[in-house]
């Protein structure tokens, strides 16, 4: 079980090193006055620091190496 968690951390860490974030579009109401509604698409972004992916990779390697066979 520990090896599985370690491998998942390694895969997640490598993915975080390759993709340092993502963007998505969210529809937000600008005006809501009874029957009149105006909305606009706003682009939001989620970013994380690359060192976080490195920490996950190192942690996953440590878990895999130290897990009992």
TrEMBL record:
Please indicate which superkingdom the organism of origin belongs to.
Bacteria
Sorted UniProt keywords: Membrane, Transmembrane, Transmembrane helix
User: Where do the TM regions start and end?
Assistant: 7-25, 48-66
This protein is called DUF3185 domain-containing protein
């Amino acid at each position: 079980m520990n090896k599985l968690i370690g491998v998942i951390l390694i895969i997640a860490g490598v993915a975080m090193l390759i993709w340092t974030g993502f963007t998505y579009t969210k529809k937000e109401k600008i005006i809501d006055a009874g029957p009149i509604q105006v909305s606009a698409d706003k682009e939001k972004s989620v970013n994380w620091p690359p060192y976080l992916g490195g920490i996950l990779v190192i942690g996953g390697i440590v878990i895999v190496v130290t897990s009992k066979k």
